Write the structure tokens for this entry.
Amino acid sequence: MLIDGLDLAGGSADALAVDVAPADVAYVMFTLGSTGRPKGVMVEHRSVVRLVCGQEYDVLGPEAVQLTLAPLAFDATTWELWGPLIHGGRLVVAPPGGVGVAELGGLTSRYGVRSLLLTTSLFNAVADEDPGVLTGLERILVGGEACRRAMCGQRSGWCPGCKWSMPAGRPRQQQWLAPT
């Protein structure tokens, strides 16, 4: 593992060994839910595995290089973090603070990012400002709400050969959307 230039490969893997059952809690996410009142939702390990294993909307494996842009409190982070890591891939963590479109292009090219999850709002900003930053990506997932029809129609010209998936809603729901 390499974190900010610090090589942690010399540590003992035995210290990391923990027995985990599918029904054990992986993390707690806080949400307003349907009531509008804050509450903690316990997400089980099986839910994380179901999200990132055996699906068809992204190619995950040792060759996966995913850029994580979402704040840790956002449910999309589950996909961004665990998708590549469970499959032996690499995770590139965006620097703190906001990442603009130009910085996004720099991160994807500098670190060889192959897969990217964008909220529809960020996708629309990229499409408006500089869709060329998507060049070189192999897979782009866009979700959260419907994208503008014009943007969806132009996407193949921005990233030739790229596979696009557009799940709507939260990653745990994975509903497919049609452009508006």
